[in-house]
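Morning, I've got a small favour to ask if you have a moment. Here's the protein in full, and shout if anything looks odd to you:
***
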Amino acid sequence: MALMIIEPCTACDACEPVCPNEAITPGDPLYVIDPMKCTECVGAEDEPQCKEVCPEACIVANPDWEESPDELLAKYEQLNA
């Protein structure tokens, strides 16, 4: 399942540089996670790095993008081929 950023995002920029797939970009007013690039860090890290560094705990599962760990890994491998 891809992640998404919700209120109370303060646009602090902590999440963008830690994303291994460059899935996070500045939005207006919140940062945005591209679900086509988000793998929840499967294939790169043990935990989603954006969630680890977010000071507001505003990164949650995107209910519109349900994916299994195997699907997330396949997406990661395709993005980083």
